[in-house]
Amino acid sequence: MASHHPNLLFVFPDQMRGSAVGSLGEEPVLTPSLDRFTGQSLVFTQAVANYPVCSPCRAMLMTGIYPHGNGVLGNCNSRTAPYGVELRAEERCWSDILADQGYSLGYIGKWHLDAPHPPYVDTTNNRGEVKWNEWCPPHHRHGFGFWYAYGTYDEHTRPMYWSTDAARDEFHYVDQWGPEHEADLALAYLRNDGGRYRDQDQPFALVVSINPPHMPYELVPERYVDLYGDVDVEEWCERPSIPPPESEWGAYYREHIRNYYAMVSGVDEQFGRILAGLEEQDLAEDTIVVFTSDHGNSLGMHGERSKPNPYEECVRVPLIMRWPGQIPPRQEELLLSAPDVYPTLLDLMGFAAYIPAEVEGTSHAAFARDATGPRPASQLYLNVPPKRPWAGTRGVRTLQHTLILNRVGSAEECVLYDRTQDPHQLRNVAAEQLEVVQALRIEFEEWLCMTRDPWQEFGG
Q1: Nearest Cα to Cα of residue 13 among 108, 122, 106, 116
Q2: What confidence score (pLDDT) does residue 460 get?
Q3: Buried-exposed string 81-102: b where 16+ CB fall within 10 A, e elsewhere
Q4: Which end of the chain is less packed: N or C, by CB atoms within 10 Å?
């Protein structure tokens, strides 16, 4: 393996909104490790999760293909399983490409890309009406040789895992906060004592997929909550998109925001530990480090409990990339989307020739290196019911506008936000800016054609 092919460390918390990085100055969250890291890195301040739900975004990141092409039209669970919602074994993921090129690959943490099937694995989130958790068989792991993961399981203070050689009924529990335990294992992977985790003579790619700051928010060590002391939460509630305290969702926001910030700070500390381990093993100079998330969270903002909506708190995600000497540190507003990560990374790592023709994302490797190359005019937004893939919600996001089209039966609702004038997305100006709507609809039609979206076949 040529020495110019770098290692890859991909750290991936769940449900962390793009504004929840202290150095960006958008939220009062404490993230000292990320603050240092952003000063060393390329920060894509306008990166989005095009479909801000766990499984669809994870599938886009792994395949470089939008949901109608990769088949992951919703979260992997027992309700969507009849519609084939899972990452297919035959997909050529970026990890498959690296495995073919001799990389040692490791995956730690949440996967959530397999459909649960009977007899269901006996974990607490498989005992209700909807089943969520599933083992990933080796032939579905897309080149990851070291495996220490789970499907989806949210008991953060007692997480469960399947190790590489564990059978479906051989999972185990750990009495430790999940992010801390996963950072411990990532450090062991980097040290690689006795060659236990990877081939010491080959480059590696390691994914650390951390569940927090995903709910339940109270499952966070008290030491992180204590970082926020006796701050009056009302001081954090001045955004007009946060409902008043006497409303259901205003009360929800105030109940959970301290613990959400505590979780982010805890993830930040564990990320810092992993970065320190990279330095200790003298690996930092030859490793691309990526920090991102699969979506954000409303947490009650706009009257929305969680994430499947087009508001900035959900679609914008952190995307921070460091490669010393190769990627100049800076902040950029490039409209980068989840499927673009796959070709961008493979291109940066020297494997552009191996990117499958089916990949729909665009490589922004040249942009990362010297700010050249294509600059997208917009990003696609989707929310798709797997049973009715032509329905749901679609839209486009530009640096200034968010256009959302919601299909209800044969009717179509149009919403336009001008985020320059209305950054909190409070006012629908579609009726007032018809020319903007028309121009964005043209952009939208191009996205529909490119992603083979059946929306257009049913009146789109």
Answers
A1: 108
A2: 46
A3: bebebbbeeebbbbbbbbbebe
A4: N
- Residue 259 CA to residue 265 CA, distance in Å, equals 10
Residue numbers of the chain with a pLDDT score lower than 70: 1-3, 459-460
Q: Which CATH class is domain 7-370?
A: alpha beta
- Assign 262 to helix, strand or coil: helix
Contacts of 372 (CB under 8 A, 6+ apart): 366
Task: Give the separation between CA 379 and CA 52, rounded to whole angstroms.
Answer: 13
Strands 104-110 and 204-209 turn out to be parallel
Q: Are 414 and 405 in contact (CB under 8 A)?
A: yes
Rounded Cα distance between 447 and 88, Å, is 23
Tens-place pLDDT, residues 217-261: 999 999 999 999 989 999 999 999 999 999 999 999 999 999 999
Q: What global pTM score does this model have? A: 0.97
Ranges of each domain in the chain:
7-370, 390-458
Indicate the average pLDDT of the chain. Answer: 96
Measured in degrees and rounded to the nearest 5, phi and psi for residue 322 equal -125, 130
Query: How many Å is the Cα radius of gyration of the chain?
Result: 21
For the chain, report the end-to-end CA distance as a whole number of angstroms.
49
Please, what's the b/e burial string for 218-257 (b: 16 or more CB within 10 A of its CB; e: otherwise)? ebbbeebbeebeeeeeeebbeeebbbeeeeebbebbbebb
391 burial type by CB count under 10 A (0-12 exposed, 13-18 middle, 19+ buried): middle
Longest dimension (CA), the chain: 66
Residues linked to residue 108 through DSSP beta bridges, in sequence order: 148, 208
Closest Cα partner for 111 from 145, 144, 149, 158? 149
| Contact in structure between 308 and 394 (CB atoms under 8 Å) | no
Using DSSP, state whether 94 is helix, strand or coil: helix
The b/e string for 378-387 (b: 16+ C-beta within 10 A; e otherwise) is bbbbbbbebe
pLDDT score at 299: 96
Q: What are phi and psi of 336, to 5 degrees?
A: -90, 135
Which residue type, as a one-letter code, is found at position 49? A
Which residues have C-beta within 8 Å of that of residue 409, sequence separation ≥ 6?
Answer: none
Tell me the fold of 390-458.
Arylsulfatase, C-terminal domain (3.30.1120)
